[in-house]
Fold this protein.
Amino acid sequence: YITLPYSNALDLKVSFSLCCWIKPVGYPNDIRGIIWYGDAASGKDPYVLYYKNTGSGVTLSARKDVLDGLTYNELFLPNNTFFSGTWNHVVAKYNGTTHTFRFYINGELL
């Protein structure tokens, strides 16, 4: 993983995309962060892309906290949308006007 120092340029308050290749190996019973920035402090506007084991499968999720640091917009994909042990290209696209996410897995809009 990469650790970056705080930068105002990374406080994404408008539309943006989180993009990466992932190859999960096994699914532990907790949340696994893929991309994360910020904290829960008011005005920091953290964003996160992660996957987790729900007990009935694995879901991929993206979240963007709204300006007050207390409310957020989050999208969960249906269980088992991507596969363990294989490379998956993941894009979470956030629309800053509608405050919604769209997911693309391996180039396919879900």
In short: The first strand starts at residue 16 and ends at 22.
